[in-house]
Each structure stands twice: as structure tokens, then as C-alpha cells.
């Protein structure tokens, strides 16, 4: 019988082979992207994906691998392939995004959810210079002034809803939205020294995570909450205090940067706790027709009954799918509302251009905040009839 070391050596070698194969697969998907660019075909081909998944499930079964395992694996592989192709085509169309180096501003020092999201979004750049800010307005200012190429701002959370301050800042700025990403949020109670929940009397946290964990925190009414500018500021505070009576609320990954350990996890009201971030830059980008796009609009409607309905009818008549509608008061004009809208369409598509022509006379003000690649790579489901 082989020794444990021998078996592990074989696993190590196998893993290296798997990675080399995945890297080769990625190279091939880039070749596909080049060919699709030449004949203007969309990146996504769900028929091809269905065929591929059905075949792989059959092959997997013959090897003793479950359909669920194979499907999960390949959803990930295909997502990577689609994103790699999108990124390639987008860089060709937007030379400003083709450089190896970039800079980004976000809320909170290293370890904040915004910093983790920024790192994920800019993962393909060889070098990223990071600027941490202590509020959202500073993030906007860092990009407006040209000190940073990108700003990453949270816009909505599945648990606590829209982040109004960011919507309000977007009313004022000349920046464009050039990207989006959704980042999973896992809130934990983080401590600096070994302790237990019953000993905690003070909890440091950013108001957003505290709100997202309101139900859990309501079960511990004796714990006093102290608001901080960011989750990292809360973690730094707890690290500095090094007391068994204090904790911070934040991600386990972020906590590690401050030497903190988690004593309770999964605290959010909603189990699927995700934050959607927008990425802003000084110049708008172009989204190539092969890449699914989203456009964000901000508008104020005329003050008569049914004005918003008319706007929505224009979208419906052009078969434009609205993925988000948010209203915010107009600063300085009590009782008047601004509407933010995300629509799943390219700004330069014929449908959107026609809709805009009809929307201008129906609105008092209308501004396009940006058109950017949609990050959703919805996994292809296999029609039951095709299941092997
Ligand atoms: O075959 C293609 O057209 C590809 O783009 C490659 C690929 C894949 O990774 O297998 C990726 C996206 C498509 O939706 C289908 C398949």
C-alpha cells in the first residue's frame, strides 16, 4: 500500500495538472473571443453550454462523479470563461482599461468590505495602487480630481437595502458608472483576545453591518453599540483595545488583517447577504455589443399623476427590462423625487436610443449615469428533457 506521503504527492501532481488544463482552457476561450470579435457573435451561447453540460454529466456519471458536482464545477468554469472573454473584448474597446497599472479609492482601510470588493474587481490588473477614504464623498472626490482612476462604492445590500448616501452623491457628480460587482458579505463577531460572547459589553461597527445584523443583535440587548466610519476602523479599534469585553463586526478575512478571530458567524438577518458595488470613473466606457450591458439613468419626472407610469410604459414598449428602480428626495426641493433606474440594455442599442428620445420630453431632467458590462453570468440550467 502506498504511504500517505506518496498518495499526497500524487494528489499534488494531479492538482498541478488540473490547474494547467484550466489555464489552457482559459487560453482557448480567449481564442473563441477573438473569433467572435471578428464575426460579431455574442459571447454567450447557451445551446453550446447545454450540450457541453449534458455531455459532461454523462461522462462524470461513468466515472462515479455526481451530476451536481459536475454541474457546480462547470458553472464556475464557464463563468470564468465568459468573464475572461468579456474582459478581453472590453479592454480592446476601452484602451484606458487596457493598462497593467491602475488606482482605486474605496471606503475604509484595508480589510473593509469595499477594499475586498475593489481587489476582486481589479484582480486582473498587475498593479493596483489603493487609496482608502474615510467617507463616500472622499471616494468620489479622489476620482473626480484624477488622483484615482476608479472608485468603488456600495450601492445596495440584500439585507439592509439601498445605500442612500451613495445615491445622493451620484446626483451631484460628473463621474460615470463603468462597472458593477456583487460581493458576498459574511458578518462575524471578531475579538482580539480569547473570550466568549457573554463577556462582550461593547460592539464596534459601521452602521450598515449593525443594521444588517439587527435581529441577532436584538437577542443581545446588553451589548452597547459604537458606530465607526468603516468596518476596518471598528476592527482596528478592537485590536488596539485588546480587551475581552469588546468585539467588532466584520468579515473573517478582514479581521485576520488585524489579528482578530471570529467567535460567532452568519449574523446577518438574511442568510444570502450580498452587497452590490458600483465602480465609477471620470470617463464613460463603451460596452461592446457582444457583452450584456446595463445602463443606469437618473431622472426627475414632471409633477402630474401618472408621470412615472408614462416613463415605465416607454421602457415596456421598447422591451427594455428594468432591473432596479429607486427614488430619492431631490436635495433642496422638498417633496420632489429623483428616480434611479437600472435597465438591462446597452446605451447605444437602437431600443435604448429610441426610448431616450421619447423619455426626454416626459422628464424634467434625465442623465445617463453610465453603461457598463452586466456582471451577472446566470448559470445555464439544463432543460429536464435533456438530462441524461
Ligand atoms: O464555445 C463558445 O462559444 C465559448 O464561448 C466557450 C464557452 C465555454 O467556456 O465553454 C463559454 C461561453 C459560451 O456560452 C459557451 C461556451
TrEMBL record:
Where does the signal sequence lie?
A: none
| Enzyme Commission number, as recorded | 4.2.1.51, 5.4.99.5
Where in or outside the cell it occurs: the entry states: Cytoplasm
Q: What is its main location?
A: cytoplasm
Start and end residues of each Chorismate mutase domain? 1-89
Ranges of residues in domain Prephenate dehydratase: 103-282
Q: Which SMART domains match?
A: CM_2
- Which reactions are catalysed by this chain? chorismate = prephenate; prephenate + H(+) = 3-phenylpyruvate + CO2 + H2O
Identify the pathway: Metabolic intermediate biosynthesis; prephenate biosynthesis; prephenate from chorismate: step 1/1; Amino-acid biosynthesis; L-phenylalanine biosynthesis; phenylpyruvate from prephenate: step 1/1
Q: Which Pfam families match?
A: CM_2, PDT
Entry keywords, A to Z:
Amino-acid biosynthesis, Aromatic amino acid biosynthesis, Cytoplasm, Isomerase, Lyase, Multifunctional enzyme, Phenylalanine biosynthesis
Every copy of the ACT domain together lies at 296-373
| Database matches in PANTHER family | PREPHENATE DEHYDRATASE P PROTEIN, PREPHENATE DEHYDRATASE-RELATED
The UniProt function text for this chain reads:
Catalyzes the Claisen rearrangement of chorismate to prephenate and the decarboxylation/dehydration of prephenate to phenylpyruvate.
According to UniProt, the name of this protein is Bifunctional chorismate mutase/prephenate dehydratase
Amino acid at each position: 500500500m502506498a504511504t500517505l506521503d506518496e498518495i499526497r504527492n500524487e494528489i499534488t501532481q494531479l492538482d498541478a495538472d488540473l490547474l494547467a488544463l484550466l489555464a489552457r482552457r482559459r487560453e482557448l476561450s480567449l481564442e473563441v473571443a477573438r473569433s467572435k470579435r471578428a464575426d460579431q457573435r455574442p459571447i454567450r451561447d447557451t445551446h453550446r453550454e447545454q450540450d457541453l453540460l449534458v455531455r459532461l454529466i454523462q461522462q462524470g456519471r461513468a466515472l462515479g462523479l455526481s451530476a451536481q458536482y459536475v454541474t457546480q464545477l462547470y458553472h464556475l468554469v464557464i463563468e470564468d470563461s465568459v468573464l475572461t472573454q468579456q474582459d478581453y473584448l472590453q479592454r480592446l474597446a476601452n484602451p484606458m482599461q487596457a493598462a497593467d497599472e491602475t488606482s482605486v479609492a474605496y471606503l475604509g482601510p484595508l480589510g473593509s468590505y469595499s477594499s475586498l470588493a475593489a481587489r476582486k474587481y481589479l484582480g486582473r490588473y498587475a498593479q493596483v495602487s489603493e487609496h482608502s477614504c474615510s467617507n463616500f464623498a472622499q471616494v468620489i472626490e479622489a476620482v473626480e480630481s484624477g488622483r484615482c482612476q476608479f472608485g468603488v462604492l456600495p450601492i445596495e445590500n440584500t439585507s439592509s437595502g439601498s445605500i442612500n448616501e451613495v445615491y445622493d452623491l451620484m446626483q451631484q457628480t460628473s463621474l460615470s458608472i463603468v462597472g458593477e460587482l456583487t460581493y458576498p458579505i459574511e458578518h462575524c463577531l471578531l475579538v482580539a483576545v480569547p473570550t466568549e460572547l457573554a463577556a462582550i459589553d461593547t460592539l464596534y461597527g459601521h452602521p450598515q453591518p449593525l443594521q444588517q445584523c439587527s435581529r441577532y443583535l436584538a437577542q443581545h440587548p446588553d451589548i452597547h453599540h459604537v458606530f465607526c466610519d468603516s468596518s476596518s476602523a471598528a476592527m482596528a479599534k478592537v485590536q488596539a483595545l485588546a480587551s475581552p469585553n469588546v468585539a467588532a463586526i466584520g468579515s473573517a478575512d478582514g479581521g485576520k488583517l488585524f489579528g482578530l478571530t471570529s467567535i460567532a458567524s452568519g449574523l446577518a438577518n438574511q442568510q444570502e447577504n450580498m452587497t452590490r458595488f458600483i465602480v465609477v470613473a471620470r470617463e464613460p466606457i463603451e460596452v461592446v455589443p457582444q457583452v450584456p450591458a446595463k445602463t443606469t439613468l437618473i431622472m426627475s419626472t414632471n409633477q402630474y399623476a401618472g408621470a412615472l407610469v408614462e416613463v415605465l410604459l416607454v421602457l415596456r414598449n421598447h422591451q427594455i427590462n428594468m432591473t432596479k428602480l429607486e427614488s430619492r428626495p431631490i436635495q433642496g426641493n422638498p417633496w420632489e423625487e429623483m428616480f434611479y433606474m437600472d435597465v438591462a440594455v446597452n446605451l447605444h442599442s437602437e431600443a435604448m436610443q429610441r426610448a431616450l428620445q421619447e423619455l426626454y420630453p416626459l422628464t424634467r431632467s434625465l442623465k445617463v449615469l453610465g453603461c457598463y458590462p452586466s456582471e451577472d453570468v446566470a448559470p445555464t440550467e439544463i432543460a429536464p428533457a435533456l438530462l441524461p
